[in-house]
Write a structure and sequence with these properties.
Strand order of the largest sheet: 1-2
Distance between the termini: 80 Å
Order of helices and strands: HHEE
Strand content: 15-25%
Oligomer: single chain
Radius of gyration: 22 Å
Number of domains: 2
Length: 93
């Protein structure tokens, strides 16, 4: 039994970069472990809660034709992460 026999059980791809069974499992897990687009409205205090995995995120907030964009990171932690976004000032009344 050559090295390729062992690799078939443990490697993610073959020599042509075609997924082997282990690679298919990893691809499925990576697809499950992603936070997809989350849409929602804030509560009466302007708060919005969602659950997400560790990683980098892009955030876009829109209110009365004003938009604020931000990026943030969720590192491994047992603490709740709070992100504050300030909208640009609206037109003077």
């Amino acid at each position: 039994m050559g090295a390729n026999a062992t690799c078939y059980q443990m490697c993610l791809t073959d020599a042509d970069f075609t997924n082997l069974p282990a690679g298919d499992v990893v691809d499925r897990l990576l697809g499950e472990w992603q936070t997809k687009e989350v849409l929602g409205a804030t509560d009466d205090r302007g708060s919005f809660n969602f659950s997400a995995f560790y990683g980098e995120y892009r955030l876009s907030v829109t209110y009365l034709n004003r938009t604020a964009d931000a990026t943030f990171s969720l590192p491994r932690s047992d603490d709740t992460k709070h992100i504050n976004i300030r909208l640009p000032p609206g037109p003077a009344a």
